[in-house]
Write a structure and sequence with these properties.
Distance between the termini: 55 Å
Largest sheet: 5 strands, parallel
Oligomer: single chain
CATH topology of the largest domain: DNA Cyclobutane Dipyrimidine Photolyase, subunit A, domain 3
Bound molecules: flavin-adenine dinucleotide, ligand DLZ
Helix content: 40-55%
């Protein structure tokens, strides 16, 4: 039976199970640029350009490999994936459709109606590009009172034999070297210049299209630098191995004035759309360590992110959706300030993190979690609006990975499924991790009064507001206790100052 294989814009890999099942002689492959996917949030223009260019390059790679490919370009004006599938089924005379499962519950729910809508059998295949299947994760989670990434990660290390000694014990005697991954940035090392990927004719045409069709979306296309093929993405990763991995270990949690990415790998978007493969990256990093090319803390830290966190958040997403998206444990509902869309704030750390997020579609983990996310948590910004912002702004954002990180880890909206305590911090943390405070108009040593760093008073206001809830958490109890022991007048003054700052920075009327 001639079958149409639909390949989504974040499934651009020959290991895509729907392609593996495709008969090159008989079947037809469809890739489609459609308004529905390009507009369900105001995606960063870098993200749209990355996906469209990578789709077009993958189309050519598929044709070179002997597949018959039907390609719908954005200007063909086909509104949705379902419409593109309908058209192509008819044109190709195909009588069935197959696709690898999508990474977002929104699209999975829509696809569940396709068989009836299209009038042909539709098979949705399990996404085999992850290292832990949804069923395996659910089996691991079953019966556990509390899920913790660390235990999942150890099992994954064992399962894939990564960083283990000959007796199956963790190399170096410890599973986790997180404590060695937390140095603050003091600008006393050089950040190596990072090569941009080349812009070829296909990417050039896509950049022109995106500039014209998405004029209001965030993203400065003049600085587009992303890889759009598996080979280019691999070259970016090889650069990271040779020039950044070792220092990545040390500065994983650092914040720097000098660089938007420090020693981070900048590969999440390639992994998420299928241009790189997670196990190969982990094995390459292990090999680099075994060859003496980086510290064990760097190799373990990197592998933990890919083998541990990335798989873990995906497991949490599918285990708890769709209810997960409704979580708002701390009842946060303050409107997202407009300056989230411009970066126009005088808080230096926040300004830099927002600006690079909007312009490049990239911020590293600590910027996402402890600068932007922390502000949103302390200010009580509306959970749904913040999640939509993250989904729109980052090049690597797909809901399966964005939502647990934002709603769960950053905002504690899931009430503790992802994180054992809210990641709330005062300006002191931001100062310790980097050098933004030195260039900031606010004074991180002050909690109240003109020029005081807003993170400080907002932090205590957060503790005050959620004291009853946080007291139940073993890891937050001490902080609540120390706050409540303070003089009542002092507490009142801090909360009053924080309320004023909040009204100024994030007014209730948006
Ligand atoms: P590196 O710091 O070099 O890390 C290596 C790789 O590890 C990343 O490429 C990524 O694939 C993986 N990784 C690291 N941390 C995580 C994590 N917490 N969850 C999943 N994978 C992880 N990541 C996304 O891919 N898409 C998102 O939409 C996304 N949204 C986030 C939202 C918030 C609020 C937070 C706190 C984190 C989010 N992350 C997201 C995770 C992480 O911040 C990014 O993966 C990382 O910053 C990407 O940059 P990098 O490739 O330079 O990563
Ligand atoms: C993100 C995205 C965008 C911007 N455009 C397309 C598109 O035109 N066609 C397509 O197949 N996929 C696109 N994507 C990726 C999808 O939104 C993604 O596959 C789903 O969100 C599921 O993860």
């Amino acid at each position: 039976e001639k079958t149409l294989t639909l390949v989504l814009g974040d499934q651009l890999s020959f290991a895509n199970p729907a392609l593996v099942a495709t008969d090159r002689e008989r079947d037809v492959v469809l890739l489609a640029e459609v308004a529905e996917e390009a507009a369900y949030v105001a995606h960063n223009r870098h993200k749209i350009a990355l996906i469209f260019s990578a789709m077009r390059h993958f189309r050519d790679a598929l044709r070179d490999a002997g597949y018959s490919v039907h390609y719908v370009a954005y200007d063909d004006g086909v509104p949705s994936l379902e419409a593109a599938a309908r058209q192509t089924l008819d044109a190709a005379g195909a009588t069935a459709l197959r696709c690898c499962e999508p990474g977002e519950a929104r699209l999975a729910a829509a696809m569940a109606g396709w068989q009836a809508g299209l009038g042909v059998p539709v098979s949705i295949l399990e996404d085999s590009r992850f290292l832990c299947s949804r069923d395996d994760f659910a089996a691991w989670a079953k019966g556990r009172k509390q899920l913790r990434m660390e235990y999942f990660y150890r099992e994954m290390r064992r399962r894939y034999g990564l960083l283990l000694d000959a007796d199956g014990r963790p190399e170096g005697g410890q599973w986790n070297y997180d404590a060695e991954n937390r140095s603050g940035w003091r600008a006393d090392e050089t950040v190596p210049a990072r090569p941009a990927a080349p812009v070829d004719a296909i990417t050039g045409a896509v950049l022109a299209l995106v500039a014209e069709r998405f004029p209001a979306n965030p993203g400065d296309l003049d600085v587009f630098r992303l890889a759009v093929t598996a080979e280019e993405a691999e070259a970016q990763f090889q650069w990271f191995l040779a020039h950044a991995l070792d220092r990545f270990g040390t500065y994983q949690d650092a914040l720097a004035e000098e660089s938007p990415w420090l020693f981070h790998s900048l590969i999440s978007m390639y992994l998420n759309i299928g241009l790189l493969e997670p196990l190969a990256l982990c094995r390459a990093v292990e090999a680099r360590w075994r060859a003496g090319g980086c510290s064990l803390a760097a190799a373990e830290g990197f592998i933990r992110q890919i083998l541990g966190w990335r798989e873990y958040v995906r497991g949490i997403y599918w285990l708890h959706m769709p209810a997960y998206a409704e979580g708002n444990a701390l009842h946060a509902d303050r409107p997202l300030p407009d300056w989230f869309w411009s970066g126009a704030t005088e808080l230096r750390c926040l300004q830099q993190a927002l600006k690079q997020s909007l312009d490049l579609g990239y911020a590293h983990h600590i910027q996402r979690l402890m600068v932007i996310g922390n502000f949103a948590l302390l200010a009580g910004l509306d959970v749904r609006a913040v999640c939509d912002w993250y989904l729109a702004v980052y090049v690597d954002a797909f809901e399966w990975v964005e939502l647990p990180n934002t709603l769960g880890m950053a905002l504690y909206g899931d009430g503790g499924i992802m994180a054992s305590k809210p990641y709330a911090a005062s300006g002191k943390y931001i100062q310790r991790q980097g050098n933004h405070c030195a260039s900031c108009r606010y004074d991180v040593r002050k909690t109240t009064g003109e020029g005081a760093c807003p993170y400080n008073a907002l932090y205590w206001r957060f503790i005050d507001r959620h004291a009853a809830y946080l007291k139940k958490n073993a890891r937050m109890g001490l902080m609540v206790g120390s706050w409540q022991k303070r003089d009542a007048a002092e507490r009142e003054a801090i909360v009053a100052w924080a309320d004023g700052e909040l009204a100024r920075l994030a007014p209730e009327d948006g």
